[in-house]
Amino acid sequence: MKQIALPLRAGPGEGAARIVVGSANAAVAEALAAPEGWPFRTAVLTGPPRSGKSLLARWFAGQGKGDAIDDADRMEETELFHRWNRAQEDGTPLLLVAGGEGWEIALPDLRSRIGAALHLAIGAPDDEMVAALIAAHAEQCGLALGDGALTYLTPRVERSFAGIERLVAAIDRISLERKQPATQAIWRDALEAVQGAAQRRLL
Predict the structure, then answer these.
(1) Which of helix, strand or coil describes residue 143?
(2) Strand runs (DSSP E) across the chain, as ranges?
């Protein structure tokens, strides 16, 4: 499992921002590293909430690979079309980050150009990546999870980026509230807190 360290300043009490590269986004990371092969030097990146789309875009721009526009699907279409044209004129690769599937574009010229771009999608993490994400979020907030945490949490946590982030935040919060280290009792209570009563039979 690889991690990309971002050239970003962390906030107070936070560790360095990192992107975990695994089953869900390895192909995306590979494509972002070589934008010279993109059709019309343009790529569209989509993925589920909290999956690191914005972090990948910041890494892409920070490495000097090209320009990135986050929330491109919310931008005024004429302005986005002009940005695309400027990137073509300058020969600059352009990464467009969109919230998910179903980006409907009304402007015909923009629609045809976005349709011809490389489309990249972040998928769902496998068990190895889930464990790495739990560890990365814990490191980010300075949380010591304790021995056996990844073995216990990985098969039980919701298989989504947002769910994993919520779980680690809940473990951190409960541990601080109780002024206790994060042991199995806290992992269990955090799982139930974020995933509901249906989680009890798995605990």
Answers:
(1) coil
(2) 2-5, 18-21, 42-46, 67-69, 94-97, 118-121
Three-state DSSP state, 147: coil
Domain boundary pick from 121, 140, 171: 121
C-beta neighbour count of 7 within 10 angstroms = 10
CB-based contact 1:132 (threshold 8 Å): yes
User: Is 14 inside any structural domain?
Assistant: no
Domain, as residue range, for 162:
127-202
Considering the domain architecture, whether residues 133 and 184 belong to the same structural domain is answered as yes
The pLDDT assigned to 195 comes to: 86
Give the amino acid at 119: H
Q: What is the pTM of this model?
A: 0.86
156 in the same domain as 103: no
Which strands make up the sheet holding 118-121, listed edge to edge?
67-69, 94-97, 42-46, 118-121
Per-residue model confidence (pLDDT) at position 16 = 57
Whether the Cβ atoms of residue 150 and residue 134 lie closer than 8 Å to each other: yes
Bridge partners of 18, per DSSP, are 5
In a domain, 10, yes or no: no
pLDDT in tens, 40-53: 999 999 999 999 99
